[in-house]
Amino acid sequence: MYDELEFSHCSHSKDPIIGCALEGVANVIAGIKDVSIIIHSPQGCASTVATAFDKHEIDFTRRKVGCTRLFETDIIMGASEKLASMIREADRTFNSKVMFIVGTCSADIIGEDIDGLCREMQPEIKARLIPVMAGGFRGDSFAGIDMGLEALLPLIPKQEIKLVNKVNLILPQSNLNPTWQADLLWVKEVLREMGVDVLSVLPHNMALEELEEAGLASANILLSHDAGYKFVRKLEERHQIPFILGDVPLPVGLSNTARWLRAAGGYFGAEEKAEEIITRGEKLVVDTLRKRALMIIPRYRNCRVALSADATLGIGMVRMLFEELEMIPELVLLHSGTQEARELLVNELNELGLTSGVAFSVDGYQLKQAISEAKTDVVIGSAWEKYMAEEAGIKTSFDLLSPTNRDVYMDRAYFGYEGMLNMLEVFGNDWERSYRSKAINWEQFA
Amino acid sequence: MSIETTFSDSIVFHGPLSELYQLAKEGKIKTSLQGSHTRPCKFWTATKILSGIQNSVIIAHGPSGCAFGVKKAYKLTNSRNSGSPYEAVISTNIDMKGVVYGGEKELKGAIREVDNKYHPDVIFVSTSCATGIIGDNVDAVVDSLKDEVNAEIMTIHCEGFAGEYRSGFDLVFKQLVRLMEPRDPKRTAALAKSVNIVGGKMGPERTEVDTDVKELVRLVEGMGAHINSVIAGNCTLEELKNAPSVAVNCTLCLDLGYTIGKEMKETFGTPLNSTILPYGISATERWLREAAKYLGMEDEAEALIASEYGAIQQEIEDAKAQLEGKLAIVEAHDAIKALSIAHMLEKDFGMRVVIYNFHPWSTEARETSIDYLLETGMDPEVLITKGTLKFGKYESMKQTEEELLAFLGSVDPASTVYFGSSLSYPAIPVVDLNAILNRPRFGFRGALKVAQCILTSMQYSFRPRSWLTKKMVFPEQSQGLASASSLTPKWSEEAPDCTLYAAERRKGRCMMN
User: Does a structural domain hold residue B505?
Assistant: First the structure.
């Protein structure tokens, strides 16, 4: 059984490392093509919405965002008229098919009737208006993602028939790979090889019309362990679309990729094809590492690791680090804490015989405390954990996850076989740099 | 609009700055920012200043998103660019229950916890929209704990809806004065040859880049004086307490430096040296001479000016020979810099300046700088086109670009230089003073950088602009929309000074407009 870490002085104060519900809601909306967003809020909230558009890398010439910029008098007197004028102006300018009207904390608390206004205005507005109330106080960004998905549910019509070997992929963006789009692509590719087509990616680069087809899918695959569970369960209840592969970690590392592929192959009757992909992939990893990375064996063996990650990548990485790289994940610090993620991680740790220190839904203080106290050899996380490691006197940290200080131009998967090599390349380069001294005074060698 | 369209159709305003300023004051030109042009709110701007105070902790009383956003933007940018340690921004994490029943209990707990776990010198409790609306009595909570906690503690009422972008800066700069201690003979004697640089934002400048602040520090020290503090650029509580006793406060950013400088002058009698941003020879000389007057170091200042100017004189004169009498188009996306650059180009290089697309909203946000410019006898032309005021449009976008090209069609390209973003593509020399290689921009070394930058741009203006980069900025199927938030990330990553920030590696926006 793992050792759940406890932290003092954390009951009332949080140093958040993830955004609020508004960011989550916007993260879902920004995944839909040809939409515009009107944020009914003070102007600062617009930056949160911009973060969501950044996550999907929406081209800067195609962002259609307006904000009512609420000020004190609006808060006191209400600002429905202001919102109505902005909706009209945005409809004229943006020409989008759909316009989401999103209320944030202020609009939510003062009770602006966004639903009613949208209903009233719909006949005169070309775009379809979809109201969402997303006060940041309603939860963190993972809760916001669930709220955003909930808003999409009524747009999915019931379908009597199901198409064989057609699936929906859910929430590819809830993943801290800086180029998570490559993970989505890997999943699509291996499914295609197994004869499975993707009907809809909910929601990334998705036309609203695709939602109408989503009900035809014969299975849903959730690509996150951090959010989306409520949504897939509701799709199961209301649309009789089974949620599959939920009981194995996402395909990170050799063993987990093989498990995931075998589970998928088993479900879709493509066992042989799954084995073929596994054999080919494992050969690629072994051959590449034999040629270029023999040094990782003495380098990583029994290296004590603190891992800080989202559950999506973090859970799968535990086995990869321990079994495949012979590292020792002493700390596993996950940024979320769904019941499903907890159970998956517990199963993994128990199977591996690990009693790592574990914390869920960690904040910045807890991360820093845990890293400073454990004093592991290596910290794996984002640029933020790198700063914490430096302060704790830990020489080596792998800047693997978002937000990273690395420039990544080409999309690189972390899922699958090339994905494992991509991660190891980051490990390798950061390891090299951590032992290159900048402090040595050259004059002494003159 | 196409380039062929008559340019006059696109003009919203063309006249002297003073006229625009008057129209704005009289409400005869719309000064509000369109809904697609959001700026950081009062909470963000307030916490930006607070992020420049060492060993302080901000408790954002509200939902977690507000604290997370500013931490990403300010604290973590400090870590990346300046090597400062990871610093928290705390949230009371108000949820639905807190909104309904109030969050005062949470705030009390948070203050105690922060005092215990971070041991800060100061705790700033900043209010957010949510707790402002529900009416939590933050002052009462803070007062009740003042004797209990070890840190000094201060409430900052900065709900995002409670004022325009600029108001958060002003609020905090005024309130910081309450942490200061009055001038006394012992301190004033010790600090008789010291200055504060005031109006700085956001943290330390330990970076390899030659920033503007570093250049001002170098000049002050070159005169033989000392810096007590850069407020609020990584200053300590101790420095703040001593701050009123210096010989003079010198403004970094005129607008913001003036706010705190005026407050300190009224409260403690600390003299204030407030001139325009020290871009160019004339502004730098004035900045130094004013400082020297209060330091009693006029001779040292003259010697420094002579030596610094002597080192760059030739190149400045070369640049002036090529620029005098020419037309300078100064892009005003960054309003305060545009005004300062206009000042430099006219005073140092004898150019005729047109400030292009100065949003009328900036007349209010940059009132101090405009007043200063007009008082010193400068009244540059301002040209505003429709694109700048259009909903959904901004900065380097198709409409303003085409309007710029149309305007340039009416002027002589051989005698015109464009001072603005290199993401614009006019067929004349483009001088981008935001580029990382062009730092510092302040002081004599800055003037030299500017001169070199101008000369290089003119020397290589025969080279057509890259089709590659042009396609990057203006894709063929462009819908013509663009936002500052999307186009500035690379600048903000590379410019670790107070003018820019980046929320994440590939994100960010310019804060100075």
Answer: no
B337 and B391 assigned to the same domain: yes
* Neighboring chain A residues of B114 at a CB cutoff of 8 Å: 13
Pair (B15, B68) in one structural domain: no
CA distance B291 to B274: 9
Q: Which of A36, A38, A61, A142 to mutate to test the interface with B (most CBs of B within 10 A)?
A: A61
Class of domain A267-434 as given by CATH: alpha beta
Domain match, B102 and B223 both: no
Are residues B232 and B362 located together in one domain of the fold?
A: no
| Tens digits of residue pLDDT in B93-135 | 999 999 999 999 999 999 999 999 999 999 999 999 999 999 9
Q: Among B178, B212, B236, give the residue marking a domain's end.
A: B178
> Within a domain: residue B502?
no
Q: What is the CA radius of gyration of chain A?
A: 23
DSSP state letters, B184-202:
-HHHHHHTTTEEEEES--S
CA A9, CA B431: separation in Å to the nearest integer? 53
Same domain, B89 and B68: yes
* Closest residue in A to B63 (Cα–Cα): A137
Pairing assessment for the beta strands B272-273 and A357-359 based on DSSP bridges:
unpaired
- Give the CATH number for residue B49: 3.40.50.1980
User: What's B414-457 look like in SS3?
Assistant: HHEEEECCCCCCCCCCEECCCCHHHCCCEHHHHHHHHHHHHHHH
Q: How far apart are CA B358 and CA B380, in angstroms?
A: 11
Q: Are A244 and A238 in contact (CB under 8 A)?
A: no
Q: What is the pLDDT of residues A125-146, one digit of tens each?
A: 999 999 999 999 999 999 999 9
Listed in sequence order, the residues at least 6 apart from B26 whose beta carbon sits closer than 8 Å to its beta carbon are none
Over chain A (446 residues), the average pLDDT of each successive run of 10 is: 89 96 95 92 89 85 86 94 94 90 95 96 96 94 96 91 96 96 98 97 91 94 98 96 97 98 98 98 98 95 98 98 98 97 97 97 97 96 94 95 93 98 98 80 68
Q: CA B229, B234, B240 angle in degrees (round to 5)?
A: 45
Q: Are the CB atoms for B183 and B269 separated by under 8 Å?
A: yes
Two tokens, residue A369? 């405390």
| Chain B CB contacts of A93 below 8 Å | 390-392
- CATH superfamily, domain at A21-139: Nitrogenase molybdenum iron protein domain (3.40.50.1980)
Looking at the fold, whether B259 and B396 belong to one and the same domain comes out as no
Alpha-carbon gap: A40 to the closest alpha carbon of chain B (Å): 10
Query: Cβ distance A417 to A254 under 8 Å?
Result: yes
Range of the domain at B246: 183-274
Respond yes or no on whether the N-terminal peptide bond of residue B338 is cis (omega within 30° of 0): no
User: CB A51 to CB B43 under 8 A?
Assistant: no
**What values do phi and psi take at A168, rounded to 5?**
-105, 140
In this prediction the ipTM stands at 0.94
Q: How far is A343 from chain B (nearest CA, A)?
A: 26
The domain at A166-264 falls in which architecture? Answer: 3-Layer(aba) Sandwich (3.40)
The total domain count for chain B is 3
Token pair of A379 as six digits: 């910290």
Interchain pair B392, A64: CB under 8 A: yes
Q: What pTM, to 2 d.p., does this model score?
A: 0.91
Is residue B334, in this structure, part of any structural domain at all?
yes
Torsion of the alpha carbons at B423, B424, B425 and B429, rounded to the nearest 10: -100
Same domain membership, residue B441 and residue B385: yes
Residues of chain B in contact with residue A140, where contact means CB-CB under 8 angstroms, are 64
Rg of chain B in Å (alpha carbons): 23
Residue B304: both structure tokens together: 């420094």
Say how far apart CA B146 and CA B51 lie, in whole Å: 22
B324 lies in some domain: yes
Domain extents for chain A? 21-139, 166-264, 267-434
